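Hey there, shall we discuss this one?
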Amino acid sequence: MNSRSTKAEACVIRRQDRPLTVVEVSRPGLQEFYVTCAPQDSLPTGDAAAQAAEVYRRLGGWLREQGAGGVQERIFGSLRDREAILAERQTLVEGEDLEPWPIAFVEGKPCDHEGLAGVHLYAVAGPRCSPIHDKGRLCGIVFEHRDARHVYLSALPALGSTATRREEARALFERADEVLRGVGCSYADVVRTWLYVADILDWYDEFNAGRSAAYSELCPPDRAGSRWLPASTGIEARLPDSAHCLMDLFALGGPGRQAVSVEALRNPRQCEAHSYGSAFSRGATVAFEGAETVYVSGTAAIDEAGRSVCHGDLPGQVSRTLENIASLLSTRQMTLDDLVSSTIFVKHGQDAELVRRLIADRGGPLVDSVYVLADVCRPELLFEADAIAVRASG
């Protein structure tokens, strides 16, 4: 997975006009935009239509100004308000005459009420974006830059009917491989996954078993016995249509892949997740043409031995989690100030205000995270975060 990256001019620009936060990463021939937008506190609590109207009005105006196209979008909100939120989004797409892009809508609701928690949007300008359809549904976007094929899939479900949830988990990864092969890639090209698992505490071991079984075929070891494992978030979410699990992913393939440096990252403060049965890397880095992107996997208060720490101590768990993320970033000479997108998962809604205060005290880009109510993969864990960081190397 390692190769020499190309040196070139690149820059990272952060723009903040709350509630819209945009980080622009510019390389020759490619502009990437990481956009986070959450409703303002001044809006009526739980008024999903008003919240979505504000968010998408701002996003629509920004996309029009930039001439950018949406690639991958995650909407965190209440399932009961899904139709109202999506109606406002559709008004944006049609009103601004924008090319459609896929979404993942998961619950993910706000920590203290119903409605819309926030939106993460990844958009680009420069390359031509092509839609990916699966069984008649828009499920992804692919674009090429310097002959490297960038593939983003959203809300991908499992393939067909299965007898058990373990088999459904395995089928999810097999379906991803099938869709990727339709655009000239394979699951072995996947860099990052975002996994949404209904009732995660009831069957996370089964989910992991299904994932591991799929990876034994889709990610075979190399001659040295090493196996590529993507970075990943696995988090609880209620899902539309009573699905048990859905996946977003980013894959990088094509002949230009050889000019990109792609590496799995180890964290000095945490053991490898596969040592306790979870097949993912703590992070992954993608570097090309003067800028490096680090995908931080879902991270919680887990120590070097794979043990949960700070039981019942929310401030301690928040502190340890952020230390773990900072430790991972430090392996690439980055800090928390280099974050361009982040999601905060809180197990108990009543803890959200304390979490916000603890993060506000630290300052920096984490303040602009999307906060959602979600169970983490272990019952004793109260807090989890995932993130993306970018830094120009020149």
Observations:
- The chain has six helices and 18 strands.
